[in-house]
Amino acid sequence: MASKQVVGWQVGAKMPQQLVTSALQRAFWSQLPALGLLVHSDRGGQYCGKAYRQLLHDHQALRSQSSRGDCDDNA
């Protein structure tokens, strides 16, 4: 069931991998992920790094990314 509720966020002047992993970790602390959780992102380097992928794996979340070169796919 999708709620479209924001459960984790982080703000910064730039968007390094640490920023997105912190936001995702906050979400996991705020609300335990449901089985089969799907986390969608674009193909930015922040979402391809080892720490981010490991965090998803540790919480049994599935990673979904937009198609290469298709900016509308993430909408």
UniProtKB/TrEMBL annotation:
Highest taxon, organism lineage: Bacteria
Annotated GO biological process: DNA integration
Stretches assigned to the Integrase catalytic domain: 2-71
TM spans (from-to): none
Name listed for the protein in its UniProt record: DDE-type integrase/transposase/recombinase
Species of the source: Hymenobacter lapidiphilus
